[in-house]
Amino acid sequence: SWSVLQRRAGFVQGPTLFAWMTSNGYPDAPAVVSSAATGALEPDVHSKQWRSQVVFVLNGRRVSASDVQPHHTALSFLRDRFGLTGTKLGCGEGGCGACTITVGRLDPIKNTISYQAVNACLAPLCSLDACAVITVEGIGTSKAPHPVQKRISEMHGSQCGFCTPGIVMSLYSTLCKNSKPSLADIEGSFDGNLCRCTGYRPILDAAKTFAVDPEKCPPTPEGFGGDAAVQAPEAEGNKVCCSSTKAVLAKMGALAQAEQPLSEQCQESLRVMASQTPLKIVGERVTWFCPTDLATLLALKKAWPDAKLVAGNTEVGIETKFKHLDYPVMVSTARVPELQQLAFDSDGALLIGGAVTLSALEHFIEHAVAERPKGNNGGLQAMLDMLRWFASVQIRNVAVLAGNIATASPISDLNPVLMALGASLTMASTGAAPRQVLMRDFFIKYRTVDMQPTEVISSVRVPALTGPFEFVKSFKQGKRRDDDISIVNACLRVRLGPSGSNGTTARWKVDDFHAAFGGMAPTTSRPQRLEAALKGAVWDEKSLDAAYAALAEDLPLPEAVPGGMAAYRQTLAASFVLKFFTGVCVELAQKVVASTEDLPAAPLISEREASAARTFISEARPLTSGAQRYHIPSGGMQVSSVAAASGEDHEALNEKNGEGDANKRAPVGQPIQHVAALAQCTGEAQYVDDLPSTRDTLHAALVLSEKPNAKLASIDASEALAMEGVVGFFSAKDLSEEDNVWGPAAQDEQLFRRDVVTSTGQSIGIMVAETQELAQRAARMVKVQYEDLGPPVLTIDDAIRAQSFMGSKLTMECGNIDEAFKESDLVVVEGEFRIGGQEHFYLETCSAHVVPGEGDELTVYTSTQTPMKTQKFAAHACGIPINKVVCRMKRMGGGFGGKETRTVFISSAAAFAAHRLGRPVRINLDRDVDMWITGTRHPFLGRYRAAADRQGKLKALDLQLYCNAGYSLDLSEPVLGRAIFHSDNVYKIPNVRILGRMCKTNTVSNTAFRGFGGPQGLLVCEAWLDHLATDLNMAPEEVRKRNLYAFDGDVTHFHQTLDRCPVQRMWNELSDSSELARRMADVTTFNAANRWRKRGISMLPTKFGISFTAKFMNQGAALVHIYTDGTVLVTHGGTEMGQGLHTKMQQVTARALGIPVGDVHIRETSTDTVPNSSPTAASASSDMYGMAILNACEQIMARLTPYVKKAEGDFKKAVNTAFFDRCDLSAHGFYKTPNIGYDWTLPDVERGRPFNYFTYGAACSEVEVDVLTGDMRILRADLLMDVGNSLNPAIDVGQVEGAFTQGVGWTMIEETVWGCDEFPWLKPGACHTRGPGNYKIPSFNDTPVDMRVSLLKDSENCLAIHSSRAIGEPPLFLGASAFFAARSAIASARADAGLTGHFTVSTPLTPERIRMACGDALASKFAATCMQRSRPSAFV
After folding, report:
1. For residue 686, which of 312, 352, 495, 690 is within the disulfide window of CB 3.0 to 4.6 Å?
2. Percentage of residues in the chain with pLDDT exceeding 70?
3. Residues 730, 736, 739, CA angle at the centre, nearest 5°?
4. Are 578 and 544 in contact (CB under 8 A)?
5. Taking the C-alpha atoms of 100, 106, 110 and 114 in order, what is their torsion angle to the nearest 10 degrees?
6. Residue 113's Cα: distance from chain center in Å?
């Protein structure tokens, strides 16, 4: 059985292993490297025969390369050498998965190829030697797609598409490894992939069609069509269309991959490659060795003691890219067979070779736990629980245990487990006997270990547990579960024995106790006082109290500890002890009951208290599922002003306006897949950085300020300019003062800082060189001298104290606020609410490629939402007319508002360099730079005073809103304005006074983000309403319901009358469909039965105004060409960033012309076809450009209709006839939104109408919280959105799900951190959250277990194209329903701790904030001793 077990794990069989060890001089495990370590056998590495070419199979073709640089990654080689641009650079640190490829390696025992997902951005090119590499281009094309590509595209799993190739390859790798995956296997395949657009549900649904156990999928919810096949939507007339995960699986059936990824010929090539001589590649900066035996490896370490050992490069890759460390010699351990052992010795100890990957170890332990007798597998299970959450699949596939140990990270997930289990290391070196080191003695100080420069860790030995009453458990808490480093982790082990005489005096005592913690000291730490306090003690609650006291002495943390969160980290450590104690007591009780011996009773743990033992990391996550429901209406066609006899802008058709096909909406309203989805899934869709370079193309990098408030004393680029290949450096001295200024609203920014810097990350200059790598290296060599100008203003609190504001005060008032508060018998509340920022984290970072033409012509290819501003400021910086610059934008890999303005200074700097040098220049920001310099969603502070009567009717609101604008105005004024507009949410408040201020700080200039200030205003509104509900002793849902706007006639606080407001209807429908009343009762029951697990449920409505609040921006244009074959080319001013705008516009065009969608093409957005376009923002693009396209089509059809009639409806024939009759087949369309405009300078009642209409929604979310850690899971989310008559319900559902998930991230997970008084361990003004390592967006694991989306029926909107409503931004706020559900769960925990009444928690409601708000004795103790404030630190 053990032979079978080890063969399954992909390693040498037990008997074969020991025979091999014996024949190679390894008599037993402790002496495993003795013969190899003798000096007599030391090879001469200088005279040894080395191979000097990297050889591998790439997409079925043999590749041999000798001109490679060892420090280059597989990603750069694949993209630059072979043009395989489907593999994307998303983060450069293995944190997003956009670069995922499949790598096949020969298993020497099985003689077969094993396949794994790998991060190409970290994998050194040389590590691919003797491997098979498969990229997304290698598995299929849009003409012949692989089933994975086809399924993801047709099931709407790709929006912006930048992440899609990596997701495709992760799933493909899973199927290569396991052709019969389960649903659970599928859900675990994506922990190393991120998507910012979809919300993950459609990707998971597509992937699950490959599973072999669809019967395990949760059933379709009631009201969503049942488990039958998905209903076809083609029939119109209010036909319902339902879908669900279960129904999709029933329709699709299992589709597991059957074919071999590689041909027999390729597999044989790999076998030949694997038998070749060891590899040595000498590069310009690095020499790479890949030995094939341990003796050579040790000899290399002796010859080059400072050589860096490399396995997966997951740590070294980060050090070289982001810390800019140089390692002249690198030695790979990947092909040393002596380091690949993985077995149990005769004592039952686990032996792990120094080059065993974490995934190999994980799978080996999985099989061992499954096949061994269930007794004492606690140690293995503790390791497995940590391995499951260790980084990602891609990282675990290449990272090795020995490397993780040697790096000595204080937050390593596995080191505490190994230390607590008593593991030991075998150190090998040439000329010396193997040396044994216990893990508990290995870590000396921060990143320093007991290991000589010539030594390597050859093996790790993990002893087996020794008795039936020995218990081990591991714990971890991060910011999220998938692919996150620990905040604190731990492993605790206890061996218990009976003590005293039998009967009531018998007790269990602690015979032995070991513990280790990570994240609590500069190294993995043993709490020796804790161990001493428990050894020999009685295992009961009194000992638990002693344990808390000892642990607090063992692991004290000052508030300014690096990493912060001192109180939370200490609380976590103590909470882990409580979890361990409870879990052991529960298991002990079970063993006592099952035993035939006369044993003492286990300490009594009530069922309510037993909930402490549960952890999200050790319990199986329920399978996720989704359901969607919408209706396909008929009619609703819009007529533009050109054709409307009445002169009105447009009106809706109804049955009397047409019959049959004349009134048919299709293809409008059909759930057509995103037009570029398949090309995105195959890697054929191109983004800016994918565009090919001409031979003379240069690369640029920005030189950025490192001080938040300082004078520029000097800038010296001489050393950089002296480097070969560096072409030029440009700074403010190269531009006139006039040309150097820019700004989207007020021109208050400088392209390059001239005299002072007012934030870190501001552009000081741009370095241009022959390669990107050289440009970045040269930029770092520019010497900038600063003179500090005083303490920086960094937060809103700082700004208020310093009265550091910019722009105008924004005020709004309705009713009589002062008199309202004087009314009798009111409940009045006062408080404040803090809202953190949010990083856009679009997967494609900001990039530009500028190509000079004749004269002063420039073509700017860039990833931007604002082609007009890109064109304008590129021309301005270069001192040339705007008509000399053309901006072209095909697609963005996400935008979310972050590319509305903050791309402009990047593309303008590149344009300036290209214009000066007369050569193409391209710039592509690394993720850490992009997150540092481009701004975030505005942090907000709301201070409120609100009143309601005793029946819960709102009476008055006095509100001050402050936003952190950063160093420049950017779009802060309209952002603040929209927050003010949305401060009522959907509630009628008779008396309102609002003051808004923009805080000028020495931080990055904050900018637009999906919702544009609206979500902040909505969230503050719900915060004070929740406060009122508490003081009224009413459920917040009841207060909300009692104050909803009426269907018609209510007037908002900004004096706009609401027409056909469906919010009351939506509230009632969702309340019923989500079973709100029953589930609230169930939550109460659950909370009463569980002390340390709490559930919460919350239902929220939303209202979002549609239009730019600046009147002039509400205009759009389009250009429509019909060609002689009847096909149509459309260009409009909107940009495609994954939201499906082009797809919807093709549907509108096809409907207007009466042709198939496939005959319509949208090539790109370009300023030379549609000039002066507004940014693609405010959710209004479909409205504006749909109407502009319709306007153009009607112009053409007015001319073409006679020919169509003559051709009896044959459009292509009619077009050809019209052409020969010299009929114009092209038209320019234009649209401006009517009857809107708002002027803040006028009296309130005269200011105007800011919005054309509103989009409404509601959400009900239920969450479960682990009180002891703050971890949280969304159990169910029900979403209802009013999108009018949808242009494309599949795309709209995708927007709802993606926005909701982004809203969950904003309110629950994503925390921006800058150095300030709140984070004293950081330099003032330094941005800490600069990549996926430190900044966490929602992952696949954060999707609701049960997610249901419905689009409201019978709510046509007569004010927009085809009676639709805008959808991009409105659903985002619904993610806050998870925030208020978690808040409700916290309230239950606080009640158990004796705390009642209102409490305040800020966003994001991270595990830290959840845990510290629960108010139990552990949290309160450390909050009192480690927190100067009454709340955890926050950057606002």
Report:
1. 690
2. 94
3. 90
4. yes
5. 10
6. 32
User: pLDDT tens digits, residue range 1058-1081?
Assistant: 999 999 999 999 999 999 999 999
Which residue out of 470, 973, 1022, 1369 is catalytically annotated?
1369
Can you name the residues that pair with 958 across neighbouring β-strands? Answer: 945, 993
Q: b/e map of 1402-1415 (b: 16 or more CB within 10 Å)?
A: bbbbbbbbbbbbbb
pTM: 0.95
Instruction: Look at residue 502 in the predicted model and tell me its pLDDT.
Output: 60
- Convert the pLDDT of each residue in 372-395 to its tens digit: 877 779 999 999 999 999 999 999
Which pLDDT band holds residue 5 (cuts at 50, 70, 90)? very low
Phi then psi dihedrals of residue 1065, to 5 deg: -60, -45
- Strand bridging mode 847-852 / 858-862: antiparallel
Tell me the C-alpha distance between 846 and 896, whole Å: 13
**Residue 724 designated active-site:** no
What average pLDDT does range 195-211 have in this prediction?
Answer: 97
CB of 134 closer than 8 Å to CB of 101: yes
Rounded distance between C-alpha atoms, residue 1059 and residue 1046, angstroms:
9
Average pLDDT over residues 509-531: 97
639: tokens are: 């007529």
CB within 8 A of 724, min separation 6: which ones? none
Q: Cα 960–963–968 angle (5° rounding)? A: 140
Residue carrying structure tokens 């591991």: 474
Residue 693 has pLDDT above 60, yes or no: yes
What single letter denotes the amino acid at residue 1136? E
Please say whether the dihedral angle defined by the alpha carbons of residues 409, 410, 414 and 416, taken in this order, is positive or negative. positive
pLDDT at 232 over 90: no
The CA–CA distances, whole Å, from 348 to 343, 345, 372, 379, 462 equal: 9, 5, 11, 12, 9
Asked if pLDDT for residue 25 goes beyond 50, the answer is no
Task: Please state, in angstroms and as integers, the Cα–Cα distance from residue 852 to each residue in 342, 916, 1139, 1296, 1416, following that order.
Answer: 59, 10, 31, 41, 65
Handedness of CA 1129, 897, 998, 1328 (dihedral sign): negative
Q: Tell me what pLDDT residue 453 has.
A: 96
Task: Produce one character per residue of 82-103: b if its CB has 16 or more CB atoms within 10 Å, e if not.
Answer: eebbbbbbbbbbbbbbbbbbbb
Tokens (6 digits) for 491: 């492993």
489, 462 Cβ separation under 8 angstroms? no
Two structure tokens written together for 999: 């805080």
Confidence (pLDDT) at 42:
78
Identify the three-state secondary structure at position 750. Answer: strand
Q: Return the structure tokens found at 304.
A: 């080059």
Cis bond leading into 692, ω under 30°? no
Instruction: Tally helices (H) and strands (E) across the chain.
Output: 40, 51
- Lookup: tokens for 1424: 């009192």
Question: Looking at residue 1302, what DSSP letter applies?
Answer: H
- Using DSSP's 3-state secondary structure scheme, residue 866 falls into coil
Give the separation between CA 170 and CA 119, rounded to whole angstroms. 10
Query: DSSP characters for 1383-1420?
Result: HHHHHHHHHHTT--S----PBS--HHHHHHHS--HHHH
* Mean predicted lDDT score pLDDT of the chain: 93
Q: Summarize pLDDT for 957-1011 with one digit per residue, the tens.
A: 999 999 999 999 999 999 999 999 999 999 999 999 999 999 999 999 999 999 9
Helices (H), 1282-1431: 1289-1304, 1376-1392, 1407-1413, 1417-1426
User: CA nearest 52: which of 288, 347, 266, 372?
Assistant: 288
Question: Cα–Cα–Cα angle for 54, 55, 60, nearest 5°?
Answer: 145
Closest CA to 76 of 62, 66, 88: 88
Q: Is the N-terminal amide bond of 667 cis, ω within 30° of 0?
A: yes
